[in-house]
């Protein structure tokens, strides 16, 4: 598997990264070497499977009808957890004021002292 | 022996009873940290040190009353910057606090500092930090492992008795192994990820490191439990984890997966693992050979899935919403590009590119789709093994002891192979732990235990039995002027 410098530049543009010439060459070499080891994944036989290590029946994120755990509604008597999104938004939002989400102030826009400046 | 030397439960009890001053252990921790920074090869375990304990107005009771705790720098923490070891977040202060950190404070802990780490937790040596590498306290020319290398080094050096880390592919267990401490990654969903800066969201978990199994268990018990602010946090009771350390292993079935003992395994690591297995058998456990046949696909699958998720999670660092901003851009697009290119280090760029490539048109099915199939196959291996009556699996944590600084940094795939025994637990979402099992030419070696979902108690039972049978590996040589732990 060889990744060309042109491909690296195309991917870097998608990822909003600017690479210097030497850096692009190094990345192309490294990616080619790494992807060489990934070819073993071609041996895996495709089959319907869940795509997460999360225990499906116990999490609050279980989706009804999810093919990964048999699908359909939960069996009668089964213990199900409430969906967090069923709760009022005000209880989920990190900050909520007067019926609105409080979000980071945009640069250059005046705000009240003490307002948060954003978070990852 | 100083106040940090005994188990955290005993020391917290002394603080609660008034026999030990609340801030005394934190003061000792800061003094010890200073001593480890002296000389030509400073440990560099911390990115930021905290306000003095007496200025942290927190409850003086609780299971961690007065205990100094270090926190990996990817958990947002009030009163501290959170950088993730990256230039792009240099000086960033979060307006909110991670749930795990909030629970520490509520339990009476004193946060003494934020620990060094591979940038955005991408690495296995803590060399990929914008703040310079952390050194291994056992041998200063060796790496401490990664990405939670600062937390593991701080605990091993006796600066703090316990620390928080995060584990996406082994980032708590591998440094615990290299530094001779205990590190546990809980079941996915056991500890809230709220306030943990995302790397690969389907794999990330907050983990606990401690000098002893019981200390790590005490810390994990404090931070575990449901959190409505994290939709992947699971609402189920947390069993008494510290108490689980008192049970014996008589009758416990220990699976020994042959795929984790390859011919290329470091011979000393192999011998120590064999000795640990005999110790478990001697304590009454039953050993059983098992096979996890899809293990060989784990590293390729992990290094597709994790970078794919990272490429999405790290898209938010664009120089506009927060983080470093390039000052010379003449357009918005160029602002994004230059801010990201200046702010991210080489390994982060490599993984963003790898993930973007794997998700791009024409390659998605061949890489990402296949990697997800492999992940499911790895998870099925674990399910079948535990369903067949195995209680815990035992493996080496890493194929080698700590390697030299600079030895693998220019060979990314060789570095990725450091995680070959640990990524499977993240792919399957099961809990896993590393416990010291001996020294190889003066360097610690860890043994890994893995159990079925939610069976952290079984892991801790087996680990405590190993600790009792083998003894601890002791402490690295303490620099003059440093406190001991």
Task: Describe what this molecule looks like in 3D.
The complex is a heterodimer of chains A (120) and B (485). With 120 residues, chain A is mainly alpha-helical. Helices cover 27% and strands 3% of the residues of chain A. Chain A contains three helices and two strands. In chain A, strands 1-2 form a two-stranded antiparallel sheet. In chain A, helix 1 packs across helix 2. The longest helix of chain A has 18 residues. Chain A is flat, with a radius of gyration of 24 Å. About 20% of the residues of chain A have low confidence. With 485 residues, chain B is an alpha/beta fold. Chain B has a single domain, classed as Amidase signature (AS) domain (Amidase signature (AS) enzymes, Alpha-Beta Complex), CATH 3.90.1300.10. In chain B, strands 1-3-2-4-6-5-10-11-9-7-8 form an eleven-stranded mixed beta sheet, with helices on both faces. In chain B, helix 4 packs parallel to helix 5, helix 9 crosses helix 11 and helix 9 packs across helix 12. In chain B, 64% of the residues are buried. Chains A and B meet through helix 1 and helix 2 of A and helix 9, helix 10, helix 11, helix 12 and helix 13 of B.
């Amino acid at each position: 598997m060889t990744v060309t410098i042109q491909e690296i530049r195309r991917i870097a543009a998608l990822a909003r990264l600017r690479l210097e010439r030497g850096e692009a060459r190094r990345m192309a070499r490294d990616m080619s070497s790494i992807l060489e080891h990934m070819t073993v994944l071609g041996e895996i036989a495709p089959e319907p499977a869940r795509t997460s290590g999360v225990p499906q029946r116990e999490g609050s994120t279980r989706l009804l009808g999810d093919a990964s755990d048999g699908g359909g509604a939960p069996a009668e008597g089964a213990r199900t957890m409430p969906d967090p999104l069923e709760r009022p938004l005000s209880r989920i939002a990190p900050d909520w004021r007067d019926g609105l989400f409080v979000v980071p102030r945009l640069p250059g826009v005046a705000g009240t002292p003490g307002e948060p400046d954003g978070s990852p | 022996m100083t106040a940090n030397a005994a188990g955290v439960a005993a020391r917290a009890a002394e603080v609660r009873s008034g026999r030990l001053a609340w801030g005394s252990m934190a003061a000792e921790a800061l003094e010890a940290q200073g001593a480890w920074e002296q000389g030509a090869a400073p440990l560099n375990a911390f990115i930021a040190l905290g306000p003095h304990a007496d200025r942290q107005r927190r409850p003086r009771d609780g299971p961690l009353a007065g205990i100094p705790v270090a926190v990996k720098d990817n958990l947002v923490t009030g009163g501290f910057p959170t950088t993730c070891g990256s230039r792009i977040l240099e000086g960033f202060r979060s307006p909110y606090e991670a749930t795990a950190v909030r629970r520490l404070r509520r339990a009476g802990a004193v946060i003494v500092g934020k620990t060094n780490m591979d940038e955005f937790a991408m690495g296995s040596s803590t060399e990929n930090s914008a703040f310079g590498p952390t050194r291994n306290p056992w041998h200063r020319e060796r790496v401490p492992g990664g990405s939670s290398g600062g937390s593991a080094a701080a605990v091993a050096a006796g600066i703090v008795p316990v620390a928080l880390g995060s584990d996406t592919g082994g980032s708590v267990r591998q440094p615990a192994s290299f530094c001779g401490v205990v590190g546990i990654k809980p079941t996915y969903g056991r500890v809230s990820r709220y306030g943990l800066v995302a790397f690969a969201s389907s794999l990330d978990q907050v983990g606990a490191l401690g000098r002893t199994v019981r200390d790590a268990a005490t810390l994990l018990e404090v931070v575990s439990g449901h959190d409505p602010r994290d939709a992947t946090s699971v609402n189920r009771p947390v069993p008494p984890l510290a108490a689980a350390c008192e049970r014996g292993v008589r009758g416990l079935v220990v699976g020994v997966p042959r795929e984790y003992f390859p011919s290329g395994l470091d011979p000393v690591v192999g011998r120590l693992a064999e000795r640990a297995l005999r110790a478990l058998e001697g304590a009454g456990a039953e050993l059983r050979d098992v096979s996890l046949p899809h293990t060989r696909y784990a590293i390729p699958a992990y290094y597709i899935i994790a970078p794919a998720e990272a490429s999405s999670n790290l898209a938010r660092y664009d120089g506009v919403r927060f983080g470093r901003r390039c000052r010379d851009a003449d357009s918005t697009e160029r602002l994004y590009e230059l801010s990201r290119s200046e702010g991210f280090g080489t390994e982060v760029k490599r993984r963003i590119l790898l993930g973007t490539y794997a998700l791009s048109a024409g390659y998605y099915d061949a890489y990402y789709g296949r990697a997800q199939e492999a992940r499911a196959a790895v998870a099925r291996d674990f399910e079948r093994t535990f369903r067949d009556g195995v209680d815990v699996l035992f493996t080496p944590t890493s194929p080698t002891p700590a390697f030299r600084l600079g030895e693998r940094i220019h060979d990314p795939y060789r570095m990725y192979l450091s995680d070959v025994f640990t990524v499977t637990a993240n792919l399957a979402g099961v809990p896993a732990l590393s416990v010291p099992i001996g020294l190889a030419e003066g360097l610690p070696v860890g043994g890994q235990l893995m159990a079925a979902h939610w069976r952290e108690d079984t892991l801790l039972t087996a680990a405590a039995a190993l600790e009792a049978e083998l003894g601890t590996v002791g402490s690295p040589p303490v620099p003059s002027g440093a406190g001991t732990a």
